[in-house]
User: Which sequence fits this backbone?
């Protein structure tokens, strides 16, 4: 299996001079170019059909979210990433800080497939200082392919949506609604994540993890049979969470034997620090624009 690269095109922080940052997330997932004869066959994890797998493009570049503005395009150019080579875009959910750069991406000439949960196109709001602020995607959202329980994007890359949420587990959905009067709560049902298969083991790539990490990882196990995950990368939406949510997250990481936790965006610096202090066998790293993570 070839090396996989995850390049951080946008995050709240920057790790490199000349690379901008904003409240948002965008990643480029480089699958490399494994031999065409390798294929994935009938994968026990995704259950994909061999004939369908043979039709999938081997290797290549995929995008995960688009940040809040066109900043991720500027950063990609500075980092030597040709966005137009991307074979597709997957969206973690329909909030503005993950979909706001969509129109700029299309205007730049992107013609790949777009995948997202059907609810990604909904208008949605957040209550701030007593007022409702629109936090939904661009309108209208470009046509996209609907993601389901397990949606193979390419050999070694799968999108998981419709995450099962067990009562009592942490979810980061407070303060969201589908209307300006906050009469219809928004549970962010379109929250999704990626499973990236690497030589080091499975890597889970998150958007904001509104479903909660425990729910996300247990859903992964239920649908794929995976018992361990090498790394978790992305946002955990713990910046307003209490100690119980942080402990639940840490326990989930331990239960799945996670060795590398690479977090930024909505995780919160204090929560990331608390996880670093709590975890014994998992190294915690800060995510930032300009970084390249190799697996």
Assistant:
């Amino acid at each position: 299996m070839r090396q996989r690269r995850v390049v951080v095109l946008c995050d709240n922080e920057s790790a490199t001079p000349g690379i901008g940052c904003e409240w948002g997330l965008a990643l480029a997932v480089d699958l490399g170019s494994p031999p065409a004869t390798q294929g994935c066959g009938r994968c026990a994890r995704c259950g994909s059909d061999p004939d369908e797998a043979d039709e999938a493009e081997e290797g290549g570049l995929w995008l995960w979210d688009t940040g809040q503005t066109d900043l991720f395009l500027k950063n990609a150019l500075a980092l030597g990433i040709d966005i137009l080579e991307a074979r597709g875009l997957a969206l973690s959910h329909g909030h503005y800080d993950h979909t706001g750069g969509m129109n700029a991406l299309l205007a730049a000439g992107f013609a790949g497939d777009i995948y997202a949960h059907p609810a990604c196109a909904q208008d949605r709001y957040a209550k701030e200082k007593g007022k409702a602020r629109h936090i939904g995607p661009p309108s209208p959202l470009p046509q996209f392919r609907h993601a389901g329980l397990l949606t193979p994007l390419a050999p070694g890359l799968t999108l998981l949506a419709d995450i099962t949420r067990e009562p009592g587990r942490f979810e980061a959905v407070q303060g969201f609604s589908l209307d300006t009067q906050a009469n219809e709560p928004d549970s962010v049902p379109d929250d999704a994540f990626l499973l990236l298969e690497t030589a080091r083991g499975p890597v889970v790539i998150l958007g904001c993890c509104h479903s909660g990490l425990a729910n996300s990882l247990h859903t992964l196990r239920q649908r794929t049979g995976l018992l361990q995950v090498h790394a978790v990368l992305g946002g955990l939406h713990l910046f307003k969470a209490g100690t119980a949510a942080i402990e639940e997250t840490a326990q989930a990481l331990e239960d799945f034997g996670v060795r590398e936790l690479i977090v930024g965006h909505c995780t919160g610096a204090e929560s990331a620090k608390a996880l670093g202090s709590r975890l014994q066998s998992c190294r915690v790293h800060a995510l930032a624009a300009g970084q390249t993570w190799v697996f």
